[in-house]
Amino acid sequence: MKLGSMMRRLKRLSSDERGNVMVMFSFAMVPVIGLTGATIDYSRASDARQMLNAAVDSAALMAARDATKLSDSELRDRINKWIAANLSGDAARTFTSATITIDRTARTISVAANLSIDTSLTRLIGHDSVQVASTSQSTWGTNTIELALALDNTGSMSSSGKMTALKAASLDLIKIMKDATLVADQIKISVVPFATQIKVATTLKDEPWLRFDQGKTTCTTDRWGNRTCNTVTITKSTWTGCISDRDQSNDVKDNETVSAYETLYPADFCAYSTLAPITPLTSDWTALTNAINSMTPVGNTNVTIGANWGMATLTPGVPFTEAKPFTTPRLQKYMILLTDGENTQNRFTTNGSAIDARTTLACQTAKDAGIRIYTVRVINGDRTLLQNCATTPSMYYEVSSASQLTPVFQQIAREISQIRLTQ
């Protein structure tokens, strides 16, 4: 074979091999391009999902606010229009309508929506679309609520307009809760004024959870300097309703059953006769208003007994039985614990640090039981103690002026009663 002919054949073979390589390379690039496209399409789908989640959540909340004013068909139309209005791009093009379930007995609205996002390069590996879904549920009105107002009624509350402002703020809170009530007894409130003691109705004198063993000693000195002391023990007939701290460690608990001697509540002589009595949980708004208006500032500070009796009004067992079990569906229990001073006196001591330790334990017991605690420091008081008593840092408030109490109580009331997403 001539050299020229051989060179021409080798050239043609070389050309054929390059063509085969290009075909093989093209096939090999298909999955690479597909995977690259999948990354791009996944990002598009993720953006669409976030947009759909936000649209569905906001539509569910919007519908809950209007549920009492619109019919079911009107709500469904409103929800679909709201979702569509909050979508754009690929999400807006593929949304048709949501699946909407309205339960007027449970007061819930469930919304489920789906999108099908067309793919681009991912089609090369057999996927024409990516499915995106979102669900949300809202409730209108409020859950069943039990709220204890454990309010400092000590002598220092008479200064700087604090008691006047506290009454105004408390009455405003009660009105907000009243207006938020949709059905009878949906919201109940207790009022727990406290100083070094608390006070209850004397009609409870025969209750088995009380004990009558506290004494009061009075001493006189004659003109010759002779000192004579006389101790008198409290009786049912001389008792005017005051109760002091229980024996430790029950002073920071709320035993739902009371039987052993150390668990009983010690009826005591009133250190301050004008202390307002506790109003147990009630939805009698007039009674609550009267309870707030009857508060009078007097005496020293024992925050522990305020926290403990706030908890007692929210617990189903004795000494009060108005509260529902903690396991009741859709029930939320709250306490607002307010003070303007540091601990100064309880039944056992005037050592503030020792009393602080009891307050901390009482707050923890309440939180462990499922009670959410708001704390409010009015101008003065132990900031750290109250911050630690609050369920979360955002549930601690302090005011530098008594006039700031009303907006604080308004905010707390709205937080408690507002519509919330349930899932």
Describe the structure.
This protein is elongated. Strand 13, helix 7 (352-369) and strand 14 (371-378) form a beta-alpha-beta unit. The termini are far apart. The protein is of the alpha/beta class. The strands form 5 sheets. Strands 12-5-4-13-14-15 form a 6-stranded mixed beta sheet, sandwiched between helices. Strands 1-2-3 form a 3-stranded antiparallel beta sheet. Helix 1 crosses helix 2. It folds into 2 domains: 3-139, no CATH class; 144-211 and 239-417, von Willebrand factor, type A domain (Rossmann fold), CATH 3.40.50.410. The protein has helices spanning 3-66, 72-85, 89-94, 162-180, 285-293, 303-313, 352-369, 383-389, 405-417, and strands spanning 99-103, 108-118, 129-139, 144-152, 187-194, 198-199, 210-211, 215-221, 227-233, 242-243, 265-266, 279-282, 331-339, 371-378, 396-399.
